Amino acid sequence: MADENNALTPDATVDITSVVCPVTFVKAKMAIEELEIGQTLAVRMNDGEPIQNVPRSFKDEGHQVLRVSDNGDGTWTLLVRKASE
What we know:
This protein is of the alpha+beta class. It is built from two helices and four strands.
């Protein structure tokens, strides 16, 4: 596996920049449910409520937040590893 801090390639990607809370987490959760335990999901989201709520919600469900990156354009990319069903 690649270095988790730099070159980890996600197994799937979901873009939730076109939806608003609370639908943001619903779409992200649906995407991670499609993955196997241990696979990773990249979630592209807007600044504001999504970046405050989505990572916390994944942690609350037991998933591992690996990285949150500022894309420099008002969006963020969250990389999360599926921990359980």
